[in-house]
Amino acid sequence: MICRLIPPALLVLVCLPACSAIGDYQPHDGDVIFQTSRSSQSLAIQLATKSPYSHMGIVYVGRDGQASVFEAVQPVKLTPLVEWVARGEGRHFVARRLVNSDTVLTPEKLTKMKEVGQS
Fold first, then answer.
1. How many other CB atoms are there within 10 angstroms of residue 34's CB atom?
2. Of 90, 66, 88, whose CA–CA distance to 78 is shortest?
3. How many whole angstroms separate alpha carbon 21 and alpha carbon 14?
4. Which is higher by pLDDT, 88 or 5?
5. pLDDT at residue 19 in the model
6. What is the pLDDT of residue 106?
7. Which among 53, 64, 60, 71 has a CA at the least distance from the CA of 27?
8. Distance CA 89, CA 4 (A)
9. 22: DSSP letter
10. Mean pLDDT of 61-74
11. Residues 60-79: what's their mean pLDDT?
């Protein structure tokens, strides 16, 4: 879904520090956020992907200033960031941001990303 909206050459992520508390993280539209899920499929996903993380989503900040995460659960849905973080192991998560996200993720692209996510 994102690859259609953003050319692959632009999918370079900036390292943001790992966060163990939401207060340490300043969410931005389009951030990619990862956690280790406590679901029964988590270990299988970690083994298959060779990653310590088993769940991810895309962050959006609403007009009210509250951050939410588009995540692929049944069904794909928008979950408040606070709830999303609470479901992960130890409330630990890692967020990554596209390099030049302020110029790459234009309002038009963000709107399209949200439309695709909601569909």
1. 19
2. 66
3. 19
4. 88
5. 55
6. 92
7. 60
8. 31
9. G
10. 90
11. 89
Sheet holding 94-98, edge to edge: 13-15, 94-98, 32-35, 55-61, 67-72, 76-80
Residue 10: other Cβ atoms inside 10 A: 14
Asked whether the predicted pLDDT for residue 80 surpasses 90, the reply is: yes
Residue 55 near residue 42 (C-beta atoms within 8 A): yes
Query: Within a 10 A sphere around the Cβ of 28, how many other Cβ atoms?
Result: 17
> 80, 26, 35: which is closest to 56 by C-alpha?
35
CA distance 47 to 27: 29
| Tens of pLDDT, residues 14-50 | 555 555 557 788 999 999 999 988 888 888 888 888 9
Fill in the DSSP letter of residue 29.
T
Distances (CA, A) of 91 to 9, 21, 117: 32, 7, 24
Give the pLDDT confidence score for residue 1 in this predicted structure.
Answer: 37
Q: What is the DSSP string of 44-103?
A: HHHHHHT-S--EEEEEEE-TTS-EEEEEESSSEEEEEHHHHHHTBGGG-BEEEEETTHHH
Nearest to 116 by CA among 38, 31, 74, 108: 108
